[in-house]
Amino acid sequence: MSLSLPEYDDVADFLANLRVMRQPEELHGYISGVLAAGLRPDEERWREVCTGFLQSGELDAEDVEMLRELTEATAYQMASEALDFRMLQPDDALELYSRIAALGGWCESFLTGFAFGGKEMQQLEGAREFGAEVSETLSDILAIANIGVEGDEDNESEADLFEVSEYVRIAVAGLYADCNVSADESPDDLKLH
Question: Is this structure's pTM higher than 0.85?
């Protein structure tokens, strides 16, 4: 079974309809961070978590379905042993500068979500200890959140963006594995109830 993320443009339309000033990559980064930290709230609390991040009002049934689809696909991909996790990013047809900014926005939102999820988990389960590798990975993601373009956009810059994106993708999957200690958790356990 494979769950696919919604299309970038569909998430952009969802956000535009809510009249929020967030980009699809930011919402996905935030959701990924919350999940990587180990938080699994029930559906009502999940709506509160997401509307708080989006700074939006009430969500209708269609909005809730989009959040459910995005969250369940993300959780499934993160839990996959096949490293199926994919970051929601704009199409490669977009100029390089904009795609680099999108990666930075994804990383910044991931860190925000991870911090929120970690704080919530601490309240639920008490303090958790993680190794130096987790701290180092989070520091790397913070540095990438501040990424920029130097010089001309060329094939080397494209390759660099791909390489950095792959690093983040694999690093986030590793963080998820390190911070979600339940070895017997199946992807079906990751659905919102």
Answer: yes
